[in-house]
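PROTEIN DESIGN WORKSHEET
SECTION A - STRUCTURE
LENGTH: 253
TOKENS:
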């Protein structure tokens, strides 16, 4: 890896903007993964392991923020968070194991595909929605979402909100409760994922700190943004961010 100041500055910027996206629209957690993939010579497991470490602190801070603003005090949102977190205990280790067999190009293509499909689904649902069809998914559906998201999160080191938030929105959960539940799930995913990648020797702690500290600042900024923007704008911002990110990832394959 180059040790030039511009590289350090870019990694820190990826962390800052990623943190903003995590609590504002959900998919920001993929930006540290992208930054590490583009700017370092880390292997796919090194990228995912180093990125997922940063999400332990961001998940805790995001959980605190959404508890303070009331979303995680709501019984329905708390139950959703608990179900997502329980599923992550099973799914995250599977994702970590899958990462060990991925090549660099396949890593990029799979992540780009997941990002693009999720963004498109959110966009289509919002275009067809009247804005009054919000509903709460049943528990087996939430568990299935939590399992699938945690496998992908463990595989790519993306935390959880990137996929949990759009999928919950697709299922009818309002944006702020979806963001809140995803923060709590992210703590479980990141903690379990960190243990797995540390066991594989795939974490660069110095780079994780370089990305993770500005990412924490971004989490607080994003939380403020999420409460300042109308919900429909958040949904479009979420979908747009995913669709813009996907081609960049695919080009690295």
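SECTION B - SEQUENCE
RESIDUE ASSIGNMENT:
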């Amino acid at each position: 890896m180059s040790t030039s100041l511009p590289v350090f500055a870019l990694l820190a910027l990826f962390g800052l903007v990623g943190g903003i996206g995590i609590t504002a629209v959900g998919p920001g957690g993929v930006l540290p993964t992208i930054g590490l993939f583009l700017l370092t010579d880390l292997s796919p497991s090194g990228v995912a392991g180093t990125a997922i470490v940063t999400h332990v602190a961001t998940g805790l801070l995001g959980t605190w923020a959404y508890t303070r603003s009331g979303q995680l005090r709501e019984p329905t949102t708390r139950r959703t968070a608990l179900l997502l977190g329980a599923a992550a205990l099973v799914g995250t280790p599977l994702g970590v194991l899958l990462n060990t067999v991925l090549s660099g190009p396949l890593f990029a293509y799979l992540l780009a595909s997941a990002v693009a499909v999720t963004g498109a689904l959110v966009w289509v649902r919002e275009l067809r929605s009247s804005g009054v069809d919000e509903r709460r998914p049943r528990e087996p559906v939430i568990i299935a979402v939590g399992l699938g998201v945690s496998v992908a999160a463990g595989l790519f080191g993306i935390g959880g909100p990137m996929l949990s938030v759009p999928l919950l929105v697709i299922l009818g959960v309002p944006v702020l409760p979806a963001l809140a539940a995803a923060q709590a799930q992210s703590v479980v995913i990141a903690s379990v994922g960190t243990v797995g990648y540390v066991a594989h020797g795939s974490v660069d702690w110095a780079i994780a700190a370089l990305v993770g500290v500005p990412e924490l600042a971004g989490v607080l900024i994003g939380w403020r943004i999420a409460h300042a923007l109308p919900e429909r704008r958040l949904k479009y911002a979420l979908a747009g961010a995913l669709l813009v990110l996907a081609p960049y990832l695919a080009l690295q394959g």
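SECTION C - NOTES
Residues 83 and 143 are 6 Å apart (CA to CA).
The chain has a mean pLDDT of 86.
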